[in-house]
Design a protein that fits this description.
The complex is a heterodimer of chains A (338) and B (611). Chain A has 338 residues and is an all-alpha fold. Chain A is built from 15 helices and 1 strand, in the order H-H-E-H-H-H-H-H-H-H-H-H-H-H-H-H. In chain A, helix 1 runs antiparallel to helix 15, helix 5 crosses helix 12 and helix 7 crosses helix 8. Chain A is globular, with a radius of gyration of 25 Å. In chain B, helix 12 runs antiparallel to helix 14 and helix 18 packs antiparallel against helix 19. The longest helix of chain B is centred in the N-terminal third of the chain and has 20 residues. The chains are: A mainly alpha (338), B alpha+beta (611).
Chain lengths: 338, 611
């Protein structure tokens, strides 16, 4: 086992190199110039006042400062060297260390993702199990249709509707409109703080999750169905075990493999966040940071986010593989009989 | 099973019919019953511009907060290095300049300066006499040393102050006169009529906080100029070190460093959420510049819909960037939510830019035809609900320099057809598209508009495309991300686009946008407009210090532009505001980001927030 893990970790290094090289190239070759963004042309209503003579010089200065005057391979090597020492550079936009900006926003995104994850599994798995156990029943068919409807609704539309109907004094005002905490957060009691966060995060978490309900529950359902048809299940029923024991104790465990696979994709999704949800609800999360960095051509930020995302993806997949071997002894990574 | 399928099909069909019928109803804009603003109708648009009310500070009391919604978080609050609109808006309450502009008369209003600066006859020397009672919010006095320090921080080529550095391009030196801390002399190398506005309008930062050891005293202006030429950080390590400090995030975010002399002080900044300013109780100029609200909170809400909901919910008190549809339909009766609407003319104008180098648009007759072919009023009525005034010139329509004699080009497709025919465009091959032989090759009148993913602009361009189709001109629309759009326009790799310029209320200097030299090197003259007569007038304008003479020059220049139609001018769109009705003394100036929130006050009984 340990050998296997070690091998996987070592494999990670060439993977990282290739990913960063490709992103680096794509970034640099895309049209759009970060130095242009620095000299103030960030608004649509451009000021008729800006003189352009000195702007050229300023652009030259920024080119030098950002190291953009060097050749591409040189830039890449410099970046890689710094990165390995833990220095991801400073954001082009406001000079703050990129890592600080990411860490600042990480807790919010992780909170929403983890909560969303729990919500999805909490709802989807029982529905999936029930649908499988009572296949083609009325409950099964209705939930299927409802879930598919939820799946087809674009999440930005649902988010906007939620704000208009649930945060609005014209209809129902239950939740606050934007942000993650209120103005007077610091003056609230412990319980008050918890309540405040809950109200602010409820809608973003729910809206992020709805699309996945259908997906996960269908997965659960189909893998359960496959297991239920097996002979050993029939044996268990024949032995006289209760329906519940059969389903929950025996069938469930064996149908978890696809579910765990999906878990692997969760880690990077957690960090990726969702730009759309974050923008609509004004949540200062990573998704928005990454998206804005791309629009601003903030290269150090884009690269840092990329490294983070790819590292987490690889780690996620590795964890999932390890989990497999615990759940299903048939899956082994080492040669038997060593 | 078949029955189930049938039922499902019926459900799907009825469902989709239902959804598709949910369209937007275009209601007639009967505004006078809804709008709480009066008089001053625009050109028959049906929407009234808000008049400037007289001052109402008789019983003004302190207290209450104003929560302003912002579309984006500020980036840096140090005014020397700031570059975005939100930061600029916030800085206007924290810092002050030597001279400001009176928002009603557009005349110079001395703030830190005692009076209008003395300008030498050759327009190269500017002497500012400063008031002696100006203090920063921490009580320390603001003197000429702080002014000189601020200027040095901007001129330092290694700081992120490039947006302002342009104004100081021709500055030779800035120094105290005979060691008098309240008298400064600035010497320029070239005369320019806007120098006094550009230099006098810079916000002053505190030397005792940002440079307590006086590092900047070591660099003279000659040193800074030399550094600008070489841009070699290694040769000027101290300059670079100071620049790094000034550019750092603490200097732009920490209340310890963001200290100014203005009516408000920075309290806290929650990244991505809000910035809170507290009333400066030690403010030195309360008589002239009131600061009634106890707190000014700038709250970031990025989504338009959420922002409108927040305004209705009373989560915010003031909203400024509102889409026309939200302004008109979403908040039909603002009184219902204890809100008021306001419509203010601000110095902007929109236009369709034709790449003058493109052979399709090279002929003046063609450009005139295109200007006749665009149905401005229809676009104004349909896209911006009538809230726009057609313009005919690149000068702010409310300024004294606007040439009122130029007639607005009215929609006339017949005339356009005629002019195109006169210019040699005929449909010789019967394909419905005009064509002409250019450089020996038969060319169809086809081109592409580029857009920056802005949905409102897209709608405008689509209507224009329709207008042009009727004349046999085939145009398409291509969307690009903002930075790519910018790239293309700067490199002149486009046919046409729709754009807007934001002007200032200070004397007009159209040089940047219209002089032929500005089309080189990614300048603002991205349409490559070239007319030697226009160039001459623009150069004259810059050196003319007599206002009346300048009006003559600009009037003549506007006639030339009108003759040439290098772009098709569209309209000036007033800014739309939504705000709580509890505030008094809400004066709406015809000025960018119109109101001064520090002069708004709430009667005690109506105050929503305490302390």
């Amino acid at each position: 086992m340990k050998q296997y893990i070690l091998k996987r970790i070592l494999l990670f290094i060439p993977t990282l190199i290739i990913i960063t090289m490709i992103t680096f190239l794509v970034c640099r070759l895309a049209p759009g110039d970060p130095t242009e963004m620095k000299i103030g042309n960030t608004g649509e209503n451009q000021k008729a006042d800006s003189k352009n003579m000195i702007n050229q010089q300023a652009k030259e200065f920024y080119k030098k400062k950002f190291g953009l005057d060097k050749t591409l391979p040189e830039q890449y090597v410099i970046w890689m060297g710094n990165m390995l020492q833990g220095d991801f550079g400073n954001s082009f936009k406001d000079n703050r260390p990129v890592i600080d900006k990411i860490i600042e926003r990480l807790p919010v995104t992780i909170t929403i993702s983890v909560l969303s994850f729990f919500l999805i599994y909490l709802i989807a798995i029982p529905i999936g199990i029930y649908s499988a156990a009572k296949q083609y029943s009325l409950v099964d068919r209705t939930t299927t249709v409802m879930l598919f409807i939820l799946y087809s609704l674009p999440n930005f539309w649902v988010a906007t509707l939620a704000i208009i109907f649930l945060c609005n004094v014209e209809y129902l005002k239950i939740f606050p409109t934007a942000g993650i905490k209120s103005e007077d957060f610091s003056s609230l009691s412990g319980i008050g703080k918890f309540q405040d966060l809950f109200m602010h995060l409820f809608l973003p978490v729910v809206v992020s999750s709805i699309a996945s309900f259908a997906f996960i529950s269908r997965q659960m359902r189909s893998s359960m169905l496959e297991v239920i048809r097996q002979d050993y299940i029939r044996t268990a029923k024949a032995k006289g075990l209760s329906e519940r024991k059969v389903v929950l104790k025996h069938a469930l465990r064996n149908s978890l493999i696809p579910i765990i696979t999906l878990l692997g994709g969760l880690l990077p999704a957690m960090i990726g966040g969702s730009v759309i949800i974050e923008t609509i609800f004004t949540i200062p999360g990573i998704g928005q940071l990454a998206f804005q960095a791309i629009l601003d051509r903030d290269y150090p930020m884009i690269m840092a986010e990329l490294v983070l995302a790819s590292m987490l993806t690889v780690v996620g997949i590795l964890l999932v593989d390890i989990l497999y071997s615990f759940i299903d002894p048939r899956i082994a990574f080492t040669k038997k009989g060593n | 099973m078949k029955r189930n399928n049938l039922i499902l099909l019926i459900i799907v069909i009825t469902g989709s019919l239902f959804i598709s019928s949910c369209g937007r109803k275009k209601e007639n804009l009967d505004t006078n019953s809804n709008s709480t603003n009066t008089s001053n109708k625009t050109d028959g648009s049906g929407f009234a511009l808000t008049e400037l009310a007289p001052a109402d500070v008789q019983d003004a009391t302190n207290g209450d907060w104003i929560i302003k919604q912002e579309m984006a978080d500020a980036e840096k609050l140090n005014p020397s290095v700031t570059n975005d609109a939100t930061s600029a808006a916030i800085d206007s309450y924290l810092f002050e300049p030597m001279i400001d502009i009176n928002r009603v008369t557009y005349e110079i209003k001395p703030v830190i300066a005692k009076s209008i600066p003395t300008i030498s006859d050759d327009h190269l020397t500017y002497i500012f006499d400063l008031r002696e009672n100006v203090t920063f919010s921490d009580g320390k006095p603001l003197t000429g040393e702080d002014v000189i320090f601020t200027i040095k921080s901007i001129v330092n080529p290694f700081t992120d102050a490039q947006a302002l550095r342009n104004y100081f391009m021709d500055l030779k030196s800035a120094e105290l006169v005979d060691g008098n801390k309240f008298k400064i002399k600035l010497t320029m190398s070239k005369p320019f009529f806007k120098t006094v506005y550009n230099i006098g309008g810079v916000l002053i930062i505190p030397k005792h906080i940002l440079d307590p050891e006086g590092v900047n005293d070591k660099f003279s202006f000659e040193d800074l100029a030399a550094a600008q030429k070489s841009l070699d950080a290694k040769k000027y390590p101290e300059m670079m070190k100071f620049a790094d400090f000034l550019n750092s995030q603490e200097v732009s975010r920490d209340a310890k460093y963001v200290v100014g002399s203005g009516p408000y002080v920075l309290d806290k900044w929650i990244t991505g959420q809000s910035i809170t300013l507290l009333r400066n109780n030690n403010y030195w100029n309360k008589k002239e510049t009131p600061n009634f609200p106890s707190k000014l909170i700038f709250k970031t809400i990025q989504d338009q819909n959420a922002a409108v909901v927040a305004a209705k919910n009373k989560e915010t008190d003031f909203m400024f960037v509102i889409q026309p549809i939200d302004f008109v339909e979403n908040v039909k009766d603002p009184g219902q939510f204890n809100l008021k609407k306001s419509l203010v003319t601000e110095p902007t104008y929109t236009y369709i830019a034709w790449n003058n180098k493109n052979p399709l648009f090279a002929d003046k007759k063609v450009r005139w035809a295109l200007s006749y072919a665009v149905d401005r009023q229809s676009i104004i009525d349909n896209i911006i609900y009538g809230m726009g005034t057609p313009v005919q010139s690149p000068v702010f329509l409310n300024s004294k320099y606007y040439n009122k004699d130029l007639k607005v080009i009215k929609y006339d497709p017949e005339k356009a057809k005629q002019m195109l025919a006169d210019a040699g465009w005929k449909d010789t091959d019967g394909d419905g598209i005009l064509d002409k032989v250019i450089d020996g090759k038969k060319t169809d009148f086809k081109f592409t508009f580029i857009n920056n993913n802005n949905p409102k602009r897209k709608k405008v361009m689509l209507i224009v495309i329709e207008n042009l189709k009727k004349l046999g001109i085939q145009a398409e629309l291509q969307e690009y991300e903002w930075s790519v759009f910018l790239d293309k326009t700067k490199k002149h790799q486009f046919d046409a686009c729709y754009s807007a310029w934001q002007l200032s209320v200070t004397p007009e200097d159209p040089y940047q946008i219209w002089h032929s030299s500005q089309s080189q090197g990614e300048g603002s003259n991205f349409i490559s407009y070239n007319n030697p007569e226009s160039d001459k007038l623009l150069e004259q304008n810059r050196l003319e210090f007599d206002d009346t003479k300048r009006m003559e020059i600009l009037n003549k220049w506007q006639e030339i532009i009108y003759e040439d139609q290098p772009v098709t001018f569209l309209w000036s769109e007033p800014s739309r505001y939504l705000y709580s009705d509890r505030f008094k003394n809400t004066r709406w100036y015809s000025y960018p980001e119109s109101p001064l929130l520090n002069e708004w006050w709430t009667p005690v009984a109506a105050q929503r927030y305490k302390n």
